Amino acid sequence: MLPVHHPRALWRAHGYLPVEVWGPPGTDATPAGAHLQPFLCSIPRCGLAFHLAGGLRDVDVVVVPHACDALQGLGSILTDLPPRPLPALTPYLPRATGEVAVAFLAAEIATLSTRLAEGSQRGPTADDLLAAALDEEAADAAFRALLDARPRISLSNAAFYEAVRSREYLPPAEFRAVAEVALAATGPVDGIPVLLSGIVPEPAGLLACLDRHGVRVVADDTACVGRRRYAPGTSTEPFRRMAEALGSGPPDTTRGSPLSERVAYVVALAAQTGARAALLAIPGSCDPELFALPVLRQALEAAGVRTLHLETDLSMPFTAQADTRVEALLESLP
Ligand code: SF4
């Protein structure tokens, strides 16, 4: 799975173990330069380099949901490249909301299900699919509870994100167990309250930097975490239910949400959580995020929330220069 939105329940109902690959960080992206434009962000370049180095050798199928042109391009070439051709599915997410979007996405998920069932004796039944959807909804509820409780959880930023991002690879029951342990870690909390936005809190040095400087991430608006606060679906038809849940997340640039909705959501999130500053960790050349960035920053600053845009590169370590910029932001807070 490459970012961002995908129907976890569908893969599980078909017997797959979905594991998300956000980069991965620390990958030498140089080999990808033979196949992808060097000006693309580091996520598809690291992902392709990881594949070229054999990192996906045990994978049966790769899913690259449409989030941007860069990922769409990656999905289109994965089937042809060494070390072995990979079956790649490239579902398209609707750039709309409401009934038309749910119907489109439900049809897209049904098509994926047909593709996955091709060649097998028997695909999952409607009951199997619905049970998987309910399982994922229970894990989504634990995920939302974890995010809501963050201001009271005494874990460091690094430990909290390790727990919450285990949703990217753990089966639902195992994730719920991890969430329960994290939710029990309440106690005295301190630190400068900050909102974290962008795509993914990487490189890992970013969270270590925030912990070192006494920052407490109280609100998350990253694509890999906060923008996947899915509400449960309501339909008893499994594909439609999965579509309802998948389309229920907060406004997201990678889903083409209106800019005004996205800005209003982030400003309200900062106000609700008492964030005094916002860190916008965005991979260089990320068109969807950079398009929204000026208006988002302006709105946050107007609401009294100081902002810092950090351009990230998952193939590189977190830099001392970026560390200094975080420190300067914190020193400038009133
Ligand atoms: S960081 Fe931005 S441009 Fe890169 S893959 Fe993610 S959404 Fe696409």
Commentary on this structure:
The protein has 334 residues and is α/β, with parallel strands linked by helices. The protein has helices at residues 8-13, 42-52, 69-77, 99-117, 126-149, 157-164, 172-183, 205-212, 238-246, 259-273, 287-302, 320-331, and strands spanning 62-63, 88-89, 192-198, 215-222, 277-283, 306-312. The chain contains twelve helices and six strands. It has a four-stranded parallel β-sheet with strand order 4-3-5-6, with helices on both faces. Helix 5 (126-149) packs parallel to helix 7. The longest helix has 24 residues, at 126-149. The radius of gyration is 20 Å and the shape is globular. The chain starts with 7 loop residues before the first helix and ends with a helix. The protein binds iron/sulfur cluster.
